[in-house]
Request: fold
Amino acid sequence: MNEGSPGVKGFIPYRIINADSLYITVKNNLEQYLKSRNVLAGIGAKEKRTKSICAAMKYWYPKATFPQVYFVYGRLTSGGTVSGDGIIIGTEMLKDLDGITALITDELIHFQQDVKGITLCLNNRLLKAAQILSES
Reply:
């Protein structure tokens, strides 16, 4: 795990914990992990929609930054989160890709919230924008 992607490293502190913890969770929930094994097979089909959401975000919030999105396996504790390195999606929590653009949009908003100097008013506007973007 020490040589994992920035996404894996970002998921370790509060989600994966350590290799032994992940191993035990996978061993005890093997069927659920196996169901998610090929869930990302069609992820390329979601790229156009995700890019249009990013374009809308940039229009509404010109200071927006767009981090790397990492798909990692965790311990069934999180569908998604952010770190300083990007958006991290818990692949084992996905049953299909139907809501993936909404999940990425939600995490994209949280990534923007970590930017210093965002006021409560702007924060609330970003949350509303995420809701609108993910529903359209």
In short: The chain is about 50% helix and 10% strand. The CA atoms of residues 78 and 90 lie 6 Å apart. The two ends are 38 Å apart (CA to CA). The helical segments are 6-16, 19-28, 30-35, 47-60, 100-113, 120-135.
